[in-house]
């Protein structure tokens, strides 16, 4: 091994966290205020490991979590996050029953299994099916045919879905049930992709595998192209984040709900979390704007007493006392961030909050003493911010970065030829009216005077979560390579910081060029 060159001169300029932050104690610093110094490295970015433990039981393969916001995380986002090795926190701005089904969708997601395939009915006309394909712009034309009870009647193959047969009924054109090869849910076993792969090898020319339940009702569909894609993805460096039963992991937000008398509604909170636990939730997040408050502490305590092993995330705080309070109440992982979010106006409306790097430093030192982890929540706009955040935290929580993805809730809108998705703060007037008011300590009743602490906005549509995460992960790995850090613990140990001047900040972004293409 080459000698590690270490210079005292470097040490006077580039300081580790425990010298740097106390030396800058009179000013609140955030991501762009600092930069990290590079170090001698024998680590290639692609060899770095990104796994992180939020609690003893809750491990992620990448340190990235999607926010519990109603324009960011429902089941589609949570599935995509877990498939990439991260975690999605399902928001709470929906009826409790719906949140339970969102969690179930993640926990019972079988990769490659299309759970609600488009079906047709035997008495429909082929012309109707053609119209459906045209209207919905389907790129496929083979459909399972089911009766009113969902039982499989046959398969309508694409080669008969032609205008020539438009006046014929599906019944006349379908391949009947006894000639359709199927597999039962049980036969799929623990590794449905491997089982489906075997099926496609054994049945030359069949590209779609129909899955039925014990009563021969349609349960789902697996396509050969999906199996091939997934088999390729399995060789990827970062594996999906799964629980002990091989199900994708999933988190869900809850809030410190109050009853009509303004008291903490312990009964309701407990029964909802009990139902979430029954569905297999891996973590609950008691998400509020002010975590260092009696209601949040009491909620965490109630949950900890009732569910000793449940991973509890709680927040948000920006002080050491806040971390200690939530840790003492029973939280395992603590969200740090008050007002850094891209849609937040808390700092302007309420005049409170601490710039994120200073808040993370203070909280990380308190967290280490209490043996809890911290999550850097909000304000992340680029992968470099994540690298900086991970020098002081175990994972980051991002909203804005994912809100423009296909997997975020909501439709794409076109404005002047550009595509956007809606993104709003959970403390915005619209979100509070829809239910999130408790998170900001307000009443849902719109007649009451409340000061919104978030804005309603748009994010440019940015494609799939896979694509966005690939960029972020690449950036994190690069940062670790520059610091010679093989894993996140080494990144935390090796980080050295220096302040950046406004001119230094300008120097850090592309400048004095006409940009033709952005970085991603
Ligand atoms: P980013 O920067 O990733 O931030 O878009 C997402 C985080 O912001 C928090 N959040 C809010 N904070 N008012 C606030 O002050 C709001 O309306 C609001 N909505 C979300 C939350 O912590 C989220 O993860």
List its salient traits.
alpha/beta, binds xanthosine-5'-monophosphate, 4-stranded mixed sheet, 520 residues, 23 strands, 8-stranded parallel beta barrel, 20 helices, 18% strand
**Main beta-sheet strand count, sense and barrel state:** 8 strands, parallel, barrel
Helix content: 25-40%
Q: Looking at the structure, what is the overall shape?
A: globular
Into which percentage range does the β-strand content fall?
15-25%
What oligomeric arrangement do these chains adopt? single chain
- CA-CA gap between termini: 36 Å
Question: What small ligands are held by the chains?
Answer: xanthosine-5'-monophosphate
Q: Helix segment count?
A: 20
The value of Rg in angstroms is 26 Å
> How would you write the strand order of the largest sheet?
5-6-14-15-16-17-18-19
Number of extended strands = 23
* pLDDT < 50 runs, ≥5 residues: none
